[in-house]
Design goal:
The chain contains four helices and two strands; from the N terminus they run H-E-E-H-H-H. It is mostly helical. The chain has one domain. The protein has a two-stranded antiparallel ribbon. The protein is globular and about 35 Å long. It binds zinc ion (ZN). Zinc ion binds next to strand 2.
Length: about 110
Amino acid sequence: MSAKKKIIRQKFRDAVFKRDQNKCVICKQTEQLEVHHITDRTLMPNGGYVKENGISLCHSHLEIAEEHHHTNGERCEDGFKPAQLYNKIGSNYDKALEASKRLDRHS
Ligand SMILES: [Zn+2]
């Protein structure tokens, strides 16, 4: 991985955890926190490494949320649909898309 990509990913994680106060947005626990890409990284410009597309989830809630990506959106538990997750962080697909497009301008 290039140094630049590494920095973008680190900044992404830091910004998401900070905004979510180092808690799972669903259950508020602070252990085993990970960052979930609300729209899959393969579907976003520059991988969607922006806080508008990231949400802090504990490991078990991350697994539930990831099911959406693993099944191409076919299976998704209510409460974990992308629009619902965006809503929890005050973002939406368009905001995430616009911010992602701007990522490559920082080079
Ligand atoms: Zn949780």
